[in-house]
Amino acid sequence: MGGVHPPENKFSAGVAIESLPVSKRVYIPISQHLGAPSTVLVKRGDEVKTGQLIAKSSGFISANIHSSVTGKVFKVDEVMDQSGYRRTSVIIDTSDDVWDDGIDVSSELVTDISLSKQEIIQRINDRGIVGLGGATFPTHVKMMVPDGKKAEYLIINGVECEPYLTSDHRLMMEKGEEMLIGTSILMKALGVENAMIGIENNKPDAIGHLTQLAQKFKGISVHALKVKYPQGGEKQLIKALTSREVPSGKLPIETGCVVDNVGTAFAVYEAVQKNKPLIERVVTVTGKAAKKPSNFLVRIGTPISDLIEKAGGLPENLGKVIGGGPMMGKALMSIEAPIVKGSSGILLVPDEEAHRTPPKSCIRCGKCITVCPMGLEPYLLAQEIKHEFYEKAEKDRIMDCIECGSCHYTCPSGRPLLDFIRLGKNKVGQIIRTRGKN
Question: In this predicted structure, what is the pLDDT of residue 436?
Fold first, then answer.
């Protein structure tokens, strides 16, 4: 149901992952996950090792933060993040890598899964693993199935339907076996016997590669999916693979499914088999204005400017820099903002494509309703929020919006539908939380 077909523009799909040199100074935010910010454990002048715990989770939904480098803490201060807000961060002046005790940095593949279910979940928790598909939900919490619920399927999201981005594609091609071991680890943690990896048909090389590798892994199957944005939304992926629908306001576990990204599966492999925390990830730097579209393995806390410089520098015709892809990403206020756990791509947009057309009156064409993958009425929700009819918007299921941007993309009048809906979700969410406290 719904969805659109924007140009794919996967310019960096055939570009191998390249390790980005460590920056002279990194900026590591203590909140890189959904939930409560972590509690800082270090102070100015402290010496830290690569992989050392520097901020501890401070709630049930929270995640540990580790140093991505070796060096000296310059200070703990507020730094502008990719959203434009100033966040508490640990700023570290770097030196040559000295890894924290117990971390295996060898390239040797570890296939034997020796830890128990509880030990796996604890290791995932300890090493700060969160969802790398964008939501950054702490993975150990997702593995703890609520009482009365049962997980039947693990779904691994390799769709990467957002235009331009190729970090997941390259990870599947270059780290496929490690990712499949990570999938097996997640299956053991959940107590499920079946895992399905969903990949869009526009990645035949990844489909073929993982299909061949998966023959050695019990219970793991690879599924080619129709190319349609937002096929990678977890509710859309569950429907495509199992024909089950997540009820309004509910989580995927209601359908017996748990969804994780391919990057998360790889991070789980490194955490459980190598004792390595989540201190680096693959980030795509691309766009029509990019001089050298690339896929980089980047340490968390690296300034975005370093990635752009390595990809050829800022182009003369640059109009906008977006964190993420063109559909769900957001324009950056500063390219000095750091890479975080949820960073999947940096998009360089040329000036001629960087400006919105002035919005016109709604012509009641219904296109936004047709393309909405959640069956909502975006034009109506936007109007309700504009006029502050928050209770009506809640009844009309504004909180079910996955913010895919399909409505805005298809609107012939150029109306900022998603902008209003995002504002509305924030306000309605506050009302719901306040109501729960009373």
Answer: 75
DSSP state letters, 316-339 = TTEEEEEES-TTT-EE-S-TTSBP
* Angstrom distances, CA of residue 323 to CA of 53, 83, 310, 329, 383: 26, 9, 17, 5, 28
Q: Find out whether 130 and 260 touch, Cβ atoms under 8 Å.
A: no
- Listed in sequence order, the residues at least 6 apart from 185 whose beta carbon sits closer than 8 Å to its beta carbon are 113, 120, 268, 269, 272, 273
With the C-alpha atoms ordered 226, 232, 233, 235, is the resulting torsion angle positive or negative? Answer: positive
Q: What's the CA gap between 409 and 326, in Å, rounded?
A: 10
Dmax (CA) of the chain: 63
Identify which of 375, 227, 321, 274 has the alpha carbon closest to the alpha carbon of residue 51: 274
Where helices occur in 135-233 by DSSP H, the ranges are: 139-142, 167-174, 176-190, 204-214
DSSP 421: H
Q: Which of 155, 236, 168 is nearest to 404 (CA)?
A: 236
Please give the distance of CA 355 from its chain centroid, rounded to a whole number: 26
pLDDT digits (tens, 9 = 90+) for 52-92: 999 999 989 999 999 999 999 999 999 999 989 999 999 99
Alpha carbon separation from 419 to 5, 56, 233, 379, 415 (Å, rounded): 21, 34, 19, 12, 9
What domains are defined for the chain? 21-95 (2.40.50.100), 117-274 (3.40.50.11540), 280-353 (3.10.20.600), 367-437 (no CATH)
User: Which amino acid makes up residue 292?
Assistant: K
Distance CA 26, CA 72 (A): 11
pLDDT average, residue stretch 142-149: 92
321, 312, 320: which is closest to 293 by C-alpha? 312
Which pLDDT does position 2 carry in this prediction?
85
Give 254: exposed, middle or buried? Use CB within 10 Å, 0-12, 13-18, 19+.
middle
| CA-CA-CA-CA torsion sign (29, 312, 320, 370) | negative
Amino acid at 152: E
Q: What is the pLDDT of residues 335-358, one digit of tens each?
A: 999 999 999 999 999 999 998 889
Q: Give the Cα separation of 120 and 260 in Å (integer).
A: 16
